[in-house]
Amino acid sequence: KTIPAEQRIREIEEGTEAEFYEVITDNEKASQILVDMTKSTESEALIFLPNDKALVRIDRLGIIDYLVKASQNGANVKIISQLSEENTEIQKKISENAPNIIILDGNSSPYGMYIIDRKKFLRAELKRPGAEKFSDAIGLVVYSNRRTTVDSFESVFELLWKERMLVEELKKADRMQKEFISIAAHELKTPIQAILGMSSLLKY
Questions:
Q1: What is the pLDDT of residues 78-94, one digit of tens each?
Q2: Which residue from 15, 62, 26, 16 is spatially nearest to 139, judged by alpha carbons?
Q3: Hey, is 8 helix, strand or coil?
Q4: For residues 174 and 164, what is the distance between their CA atoms, to the nearest angstrom?
Q5: What's the whole-model pTM score?
Q6: Cβ burial, residue 156 (10 Å; 0-12/13-18/19+)
Q7: Which residues contact 115 (CB under 8 A, 6 or more apart)?
């Protein structure tokens, strides 16, 4: 698109960027855009990954290192990803180097999305779930800085985040309930055994 000179001068003076909405079919270009987006993180990174292998793929791109650095510099980083043995080492790497990064266990999805500083957004279809490289795994990619687009997908992410938080709380409550029942059963079993033992002695 042709941008009027007055608008472009105003954007330069105000430090703003022209809105764009780009559909990318060049997977290598999409990979580089994702890297550049993540490197530029200042205040927030919201990452939604389509499967457990995706965490490994973005680590190979250097994305995890940039997220760790951003978190160490005070950025708020949230990740939703399936957690499994496939990405255990990446989980450990994150927890050891950037404990403030929160990762919630997610479900499989046909796409992944990345929202940086509430300014830029990238959505990538998952075409080959088992691929080793990010560029080999993705299909159609949408990249945009349009305010309405970014806000819409940020809202979607927050809904997914609240859902996963609720699931985690339910899991925690279930574990606590089972532990309580186990402890109570053990405590109850001891006096019952003592009473039964006493009854056996009284017979004689």
A1: 999 999 999 999 999 99
A2: 26
A3: helix
A4: 15
A5: 0.78
A6: middle
A7: 44, 45, 46, 47, 121, 150, 153, 154, 157
